[in-house]
Amino acid sequence: MQKKTENDLLIVEDLTLLMMDDASGAIAEAGTLYYTLGGALLVELGLGGYIRADENDTGLNGVKVHAVAGRTPSDPLLRAAHAKVGERVRGVQTLLIEIGTGVGKREAVLDRLVERGLLRRETKKTLGLFRTTSISVADTGYKKALVEKVRAVLVDGAEPDDRTAALAGLLSASGTLPTLHRSIPWSGKVYQRAKELERSSWGAEAVNAAVLRTVAAVAAGTAVAVSSS
């Protein structure tokens, strides 16, 4: 099993590690995770010049996203996401769902992290009959280095590179940044800095809108259920 370096990993892989509890393998905000994973892949495609957003063409589903002709990513996950964008021009909100629940779904990202030796997957039998599978962080040193890079930007005011800015913006947009409070103390300053980075990326901003819309729909459904009971 070959360990991968930071430059080998995709933003969506680093983001998944940051959102995951080291011991339990639980991922924060799992109910809206597909928006976040789809957003991470779109951000990476945008940073690589493989797609572009038409800010002058905005519909109900957000800005329209176009695949850049003649450019194809080498990474298979990015290549599949790029192919999805290239099928037809759609709003970013639609693409977040299609990519996050399709080519960039949770299982595909977890499998890659297990193959890279960054996650550990264990299967056990309960009562000698039932198989249960658990996932935990295997390489905590790599994750700690990731957290330190994000912390330096949000707490110490360091100037981020594109990847770190994208990670911080997506953590903010997904609502999962406070889960890192033990390493990145939560404060008004951290919140404001993360929001600045979120707004600087159309991909992260789209995730934020999608998450808020989903939360509002869930809240409305809960209110209806309570009122009718």
Automatic annotation (TrEMBL):
Gene3D superfamilies (UniProt xref): yeast vps74-n-term truncation variant domain like
Annotated compartments: Golgi apparatus membrane
Highest taxon above the source species: Bacteria
Keyword list, A-Z: Golgi apparatus, Lipid-binding, Membrane
Recorded topology in the membrane: Peripheral membrane protein
Protein name: GPP34 family phosphoprotein
Organism listed in the record: Streptomyces pakalii
Lineage, uppermost ranks: Bacteria, Bacillati, Actinomycetota, Actinomycetes, Kitasatosporales
